Amino acid sequence: MKKLVGAAIIGQSGGPTSVINASAAGVFLTALKSEDITAVYGAKHGIKGILNEEFYDISQEELSELKLLKNTPSSMIGSVRYKLKDPAKDPADYNRLLEVFKKYNIRYFFYNGGNDSMDTAHKISLFFQSQNYECRIIGIPKTIDNDLYGTDHCPGYGSAAKYVATTLMEIYHDATVYDTEMVTVVEIMGRNAGWLTAAAQLAVDKGQGPDLIYLPEITFDYDDFFSDVEKTLNKKGNVIIAISEGVKDQDGKYIPEKYSTLATDSFGHAQLGGTASVLANEIQKKFNVKVRGIEFSLMQRCAAHLASATDVEEAFNAGAEAVNSALAGYSDYMIGFERISNSPYEIKYIHIPLENVANYEKKVPLEWIKPHGQGLTREFSEYALPLIQGEDKAPLINGLPRFAQLKKVLVKK
Amino acid sequence: MKKLVGAAIIGQSGGPTSVINASAAGVFLTALKSEDITAVYGAKHGIKGILNEEFYDISQEELSELKLLKNTPSSMIGSVRYKLKDPAKDPADYNRLLEVFKKYNIRYFFYNGGNDSMDTAHKISLFFQSQNYECRIIGIPKTIDNDLYGTDHCPGYGSAAKYVATTLMEIYHDATVYDTEMVTVVEIMGRNAGWLTAAAQLAVDKGQGPDLIYLPEITFDYDDFFSDVEKTLNKKGNVIIAISEGVKDQDGKYIPEKYSTLATDSFGHAQLGGTASVLANEIQKKFNVKVRGIEFSLMQRCAAHLASATDVEEAFNAGAEAVNSALAGYSDYMIGFERISNSPYEIKYIHIPLENVANYEKKVPLEWIKPHGQGLTREFSEYALPLIQGEDKAPLINGLPRFAQLKKVLVKK
Asked: Which of A132, B281, B321, B340 is the most buried (most CB within 10 A)?
């Protein structure tokens, strides 16, 4: 392995999670210790920060604050949704990146995100190779959607799944206290893959979960749905439904789109309610029962107070592995997890070519999904349960979390 | 004090909280130890359970499960929203209650709820006195709204306030990660009193809270509001707003009512969006920025995993005090808290005549509320901070909470 001496930079990209900062902590604390790495930078708002030459000098931060990043939700150095163009058509961004990398002698680039981010990292890797600029580029997975190719699961998923299962158990207790008929619809994130909604099954396994679960992997049938709701209502008088925001009907339409003609704003735009509120409204009209629509919204991805210790540890380790792999000569790979066993739970860290990860979505296996909203099979629970184990959260000061506070000293241009 | 021997019953009433079961545990565990109390019953769905002669025999439950009630959210024996009529006009319910109390020799009645429940308990107390039926009736306060008369604060508030402050801090981290303009509107419960929304100030005090806070104590002015949003948006590019669901404009209308003409369902009913989604929608139209409406919904009142230890302990003690007070001869009172000092935090348990509590709402003092959504004064934070201290939650089994499991053995009629 050839020794490569230069600066390292990390960018955070896409929607936040409870543990994306834990991966950043893994990168920072490992990179700061390396003799080959001459400077450690954090890109302000991901790739945009590099293009704009705006990055933080991480060596200026207190080590104790960098450690607190493990339990600080969201993307501390700023995230971005920015898709690089095809370099064959528009190489401007790539040339600019190369210019900046050269100026600061950046030889290690870590990008923490979902499949779009892995695509970005791979494209940069190819471009730098074509320009004979030596730079080791490693992707670090991150997504509550858990839909990245090649890895058993993704950092961020375990904590979000723990939030979903715990909160549904609590809602089960709350939504069933009256002796009147009631339907509660809970909307969970996940545009194309239903992994997070599937975590509702973990609450069902405890006897304190939703009655019906709908994932985007299965085409949503309105007749079946209302019939399933009616049956459950007649049997139990109280129905709790967990549904993915990404559910689509046979016309490929999201649920709010179907009902969007009801209301338009003053510009004629359709006013989209969320899936939960739209369905709750329809159920109210059809069955004349009390309804409640609930969206887990940002809470499901930023509830660091309820993070899974397993998830925090793996996210941190993925960051550390990324640095160590790059130092060992790896490039153009994403760090992934391979599961060795469920009981005791054991994984090993692996390298997945970025090219394979880019733009591919891993969905819940269809054979794990029961028909008619009847939840997930045992295989899913055995898969998911190890990922939500343990607790690891920020220390409390005066009853509230003490999150990391970074000085965020920008590197002089 | 005259010794009174007979059965005791407790009812849970109104909207659940994280700690209403902690008060039930306080009643159960104290009453089961008393020699004067011959049986301990839990009314199924509050006053309705008594009218229907449906109550659980608490002596059949495992003590370990009753202890777990301290950390089990919502109303384990079932809640109810049922308002007794004026006994002068319709004494049927009262006569039926008396019949049931006599049949089972119930001499102790504990009712755990808000001001409606205290009104119910007081009316029953007066009726029983008029019929010369000796029964000691004690109310136990409960409400996340924190609006009961005569008590410094109410069980349930501290935990809900801790949820609001913690979650807003997490949302602050999540909602500010992009470098694009964005407005996040968070809707918090509280129809008439803004105590729970005011807890947003505790996140502001940490530098990680909303920019604007709106309580129902202040008439909502649309022009002021949009102007305040615009100013903050121009200054910061990112705005987080905490607003009570109970906010009303100068015509006495809730915010969703103002915009309800946009859509009506097939029966002609107005389709009400929530305050957050309606305002987010208006802000999007006015300023053409990315918006997100978030409702804390049931989570703010049932997130037992985030309960305040202070709240759990006080709720339990309020239940225990209710039993001990009744055994000591008190009747027609609610247990309340009087604050002795803030630092160190110290309270004493007091007795407040039910008559005074019934149907009175205690609001946030106007002098604590800053104009233009600028939050609350130091006095509020000093008041609220002690109430969110400490953690006390259900043990985790396999990563998820182990809530109480009651056998719920109905007493034979």
From this structure: B321
CA distance A368 to A379: 7
CA quadruple B142, B148, B154, B156: dihedral sign: positive
Residue B379, classed as helix, strand or coil, is helix
Residue B388 has its nearest CB partner, among A75, A297, A399, at A399
User: Is B206 in Cβ contact with A305 (below 8 Å)?
Assistant: no
Q: Could you tell me the two tokens for B94? A: 């009262």
Interface test with B, best of A75, A178, A313, A385 (most B CBs within 10 A): A178
Q: Is the separation of the CB atoms in A308 and A153 below 8 Å?
A: no
pLDDT tier for residue A224 given thresholds of 50, 70 and 90? very high
Domains of chain A: 6-155+304-360+389-401 (3.40.50.450), 160-302 (3.40.50.460)
Facing residue for B179 by CB, picked from A45, A179, A281: A45
Average model confidence (pLDDT) for chain B?
A: 94
Q: How many CA atoms lie within 13 A of A329 on its CB side?
A: 3
**Which residues does B126 contact at the CB level (< 8 Å), separation at least 6?**
B87
pLDDT at site B274: 87
Say how far apart CA A204 and CA A172 lie, in whole Å.
10
pLDDT band at B264 (very low <50, low <70, confident <90, very high): very low
- Given pLDDT bands bounded at 50, 70 and 90, which one contains residue A258? confident
Quote the CA–CA distance of B340 and B351 in Å, as a whole number. 15
Residue A257: what pLDDT? 85
The confidence score (pLDDT) of residue A273 equals: 63
* Minimum distance, in Å, between the CA of residue B57 and any CA atom of chain A: 18
Of A70 and A85, more confident: A70
Q: What is the mean pLDDT of residues B82-98?
A: 92
Q: Which two tokens mark B334?
A: 């609610």
pLDDT the model gives residue B157: 98
* 3-state SS string for chain A: CCCCCEEEEEEECCCCCCCHHHHHHHHHHHHCCCCCEEEEEEECCHHHHHHCCCEEEHHHCCHHHHHHHHHCCCCCCCCCCCCCCCCCCCCHHHHHHHHHHHHCCEEEEEEEECHHHHHHHHHHHHHHHHCCCCCEEEEEECCCCCCECCCCCCCCHHHHHHHHHHHHHHHHHHHCCCCCCEEEEEEECCCCCCHHHHCHHHHHHCCCCCCEEECCCCCECHHHHHHHHHHHHHHHCEEEEEEECCCEECCCCEHHHHCHHHCECCCCCECCCCHHHHHHHHHHHHHCCEEEEEECCCHHHHCHHHCEHHHHHHHHHHHHHHHHHHHCCCCCEEEEEEEEEECCEEEEEEEEEHHHHCCCECCCCHHHECCCCECECHHHHHHHHHHHCCECCCCEECCEECCCCCCCCECCC
